[in-house]
């Protein structure tokens, strides 16, 4: 192993250069990201963020670290983001049936909704993105908060939803559609 250059001007690194520590020893000192990665993963996102989002949050905090390093550290310390895949595989033959008879699926869904006293949400003609923002929100809510969790009482569920929306989703969560800012930050910048 090589040694640290003795022409280091940074005062905090100079003593290391004088001691001629090996590069391996110095790199061990730089491995201070773990608590920060853990803080972003556990405290900042309540265990929701995976390595790409933890990396983005660390970069926003001014911490220079590579995405692969964040992924390696998270894997090493068994930190995983919440899975965003919500749907189970469709039974064999279902896709083929409904691709041949598309109105039957629509009719079945509308009938079920009607039996529950609901009306299907509809886009305006030619405006396929009308519900896009809400569909994205509900996907995030299901994947990040609801899937895999249970609540004993309605008030417990209501409290968890309020905390997720008010404290995390609107104030902290990074949104790719907003340039990796929270909605609160985005509104402050863009009025």
Polypeptide structure, described:
This protein has 191 residues and is mainly α. It has two domains: 14-76, no CATH class; 94-122 and 137-190, no CATH class. Helix content is 55%, strand content 0%. The protein has ten helices and no strands. The longest helix is centred in the last third of the chain and has 16 residues, at 154-169. The termini are far apart. Residues 1-31 have low confidence and may be disordered.
Helix/strand layout:
Elements: H1 14-18, H2 23-30, H3 33-44, H4 51-60, H5 67-76, H6 94-100, H7 102-115, H8 132-146, H9 154-169, H10 183-190
Helix pairs in contact: 3-4, 4-5, 6-7
Annotation keywords:
191 residues; mainly alpha; 2 domains; globular; 10 helices
The pLDDT mean sits at: 76
- Secondary-structure element series: HHHHHHHHHH
Could you say how many structural domains there are in total? 2
The major beta sheet can be summarized as:
none
3D shape: globular
Structural class: mainly alpha
Brief sketch in words of this structure:
The chain has helices at 14-18, 23-30, 33-44, 51-60, 67-76, 94-100, 102-115, 132-146, 154-169, 183-190. With 191 residues, it is mainly alpha-helical.
């Amino acid at each position: 192993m090589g040694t640290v250059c003795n022409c280091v001007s940074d005062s905090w690194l100079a003593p290391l250069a004088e001691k001629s520590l090996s590069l391996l020893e110095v790199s061990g000192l730089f491995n201070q990201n773990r608590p920060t990665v853990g803080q972003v993963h556990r405290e900042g996102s309540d265990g929701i963020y995976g390595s790409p989002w933890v990396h983005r949050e660390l970069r926003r905090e001014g911490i220079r670290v590579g995405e692969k390093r964040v992924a390696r550290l998270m894997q090493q310390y068994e930190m995983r983001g919440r899975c965003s895949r919500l749907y189970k595989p469709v039974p064999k033959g279902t896709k083929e049936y409904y691709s041949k008879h598309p109105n039957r699926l629509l009719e079945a869904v509308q009938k079920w909704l009607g039996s529950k006293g609901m009306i299907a949400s509809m886009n305006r003609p030619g405006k396929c993105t009308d519900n896009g923002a809400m569909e994205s929100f509900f996907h995030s809510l299901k994947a990040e908060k609801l899937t895999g969790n249970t609540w004993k009482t309605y008030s417990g569920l209501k409290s968890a939803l309020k905390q997720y929306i008010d404290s995390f989703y609107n104030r902290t969560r990074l949104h790719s559609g907003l340039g990796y800012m929270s909605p609160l930050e985005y509104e402050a910048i863009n009025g």
